[in-house]
Specification:
Layout lengths: L1 H19 L6 H7 L4 H29 L1 H21 L3 H11 L1 H5 L1 H11 L4 H63 L4 H8 L10 H18 L5 H8 L4 H26 L5 H19 L4 H12 L5 H10 L6 H16 L2 H11 L1 H22 L7 H4 L1
Helix pairs in contact: 1-7, 1-8, 3-4, 3-7, 3-16, 3-17, 4-5, 4-7, 4-8, 7-16, 8-12, 8-15, 10-13, 10-16, 10-18, 12-14, 13-14, 13-18, 17-18
Length: 395
């Protein structure tokens, strides 16, 4: 049963990602083609980050109340509607409006994903579970962006994006049908005790442990490092370094291949060691990435920078497992939702701030990002306990 539910989730994450990644990373350049200014692109990034923030807690609350299966299907259906809206017409307002729906699968559905892994796996097996989840989410990012870049080169930015939207609709609709059938079959095999644990979380009082709050502070600082330049990576590559959209897709593949290569050895080591060193190492690479990008003036230099960017994921399975370890089992959805809502609200203005810095000097966006990353790394190194008290009993 656990294998069936986990396999269904992995397949859904893979196919949804394959469809979305044809076009998602090109949205900033799409907006530029539609006439958006650099500041408007920054606002778009902030809008996306704000949706990430405000969606996480209600997504967790809904998951705790109605269960992971129904939650994932509802959130996937909302995302499908958002992609259909993007096909409706190429305009800046439509892109902003569609994002309110498109973000449902990744943001509303994030607590459901964490909760399902938390239900099925315990202890160090959670690191393995989150490693698999991370890999199946990122393999599409290796495959799809280069294909999306080719669509943009062959059909133009607007035509290529609309073709990507249409392909994504077909893939996501098929995924929801298969996911619904697979989870229905698996749910019928669940024990009464497991079903009660899933459905009863909304009556539990929620409180974040002090160790989780320390991780949250460090994570907020590091995600500011990520958010300041995030929507401008494609702009820097295409407009400053002067590479083609297809080559930017190759850079994205390099980043994801590096990330995937780092997951398995890091997860194996984390099973035998503390999680903290891997979290801190992840934050170090977050800090180095914007510095490497802003120093790049050729495709080869960008390739090396994006390989550094891929190493940002080296401790992600350990960090996600630590969040679940520190969550109340009866309220995992709301704990994850609260964590990501607070983190998202803290960094929601990062892209707009990055856009404002970009209008002064583009390099300022990347320098400010590195400063935030260094602060987050230092916080985690100093204040995050190597082994939170009582964690052995919880896991």
């Amino acid at each position: 049963m656990a294998a069936r539910r986990a396999t269904a989730l992995a397949a859904a994450l893979f196919v949804f990602g394959l469809g979305e990644e044809l076009w998602f990373r090109y949205l900033p350049e799409y907006l530029r083609t539609l006439g958006a200014s650099a500041f408007a692109v920054g606002l778009f990034g902030t809008w996306k980050d704000l949706l990430d923030a405000v969606y996480a807690y209600p997504g967790g609350a809904v998951t705790d109340r109605i269960g992971t299966k129904r939650s994932l299907l509802i959130f996937g259906g909302i995302t499908l509607g958002g992609i259909a809206l993007l096909v409706a017409g190429p305009s800046i307002p439509v892109v902003f409006l569609a994002m309110t729906l498109v973000m449902a699968w990744s943001s509303l559905g994030l607590p459901a994903t964490f909760a399902l892994i938390g239900e099925e796996l315990e202890g160090h097996r959670r690191i393995v579970g989150f490693t698999v989840q991370s890999i199946v989410k990122r393999v599409p990012i290796v495959i799809a962006p280069p294909l999306g870049g080719l669509l943009l080169e062959r059909l133009g930015v607007v035509g290529g994006m609309r073709a990507g939207f249409a392909i994504s609709i077909v893939l996501c609709a098929a995924t929801l049908v298969v996911l619904g059938r697979a989870l229905s079959a698996a749910s019928s095999e669940r024990t009464p005790a497991a079903a009660k644990a899933t459905a009863g979380g909304d009556r539990t009082r929620l409180r974040l442990r002090p160790e989780l709050r320390q991780l949250l502070v460090a994570d907020c600082l590091v995600r500011l490092c990520e958010g300041l330049p995030d929507v401008f990576l494609v702009v820097w590559a295409i407009e400053v370094v002067r590479i083609t959209p297809a080559r930017f897709g190759i850079l994205t593949s390099i980043l994801m291949l590096t990330a995937i290569a780092s997951y398995l050895p890091a997860a194996a080591l984390a099973r035998r060691a503390e999680k903290k060193p891997f979290v801190v190492l992840t934050y170090v690479f977050f800090t180095l990435f914007p510095l490497a990008v802003v120093a790049s003036r050729s495709f080869a230099a960008l390739a090396a920078a994006f390989a550094i960017g891929g190493l940002r994921e080296i401790g992600e399975p350990a960090r996600k497992a630590l969040i679940v370890d520190l969550a109340d089992p009866a309220a995992r959805g709301r704990t994850v939702g609260t964590y990501y809502t607070l983190r998202g609200l803290a960094v929601a203005g990062a892209a707009a701030a990055g856009g404002a810095l970009w209008t002064i000097r583009p390099w300022l966006t990347f320098a400010a990002a590195a400063a935030m990353g260094a602060a987050g790394t230092a916080w985690a190194a100093v204040f995050l306990p190597a082994r939170p008290p009582g964690l052995e009993e919880r896991t």
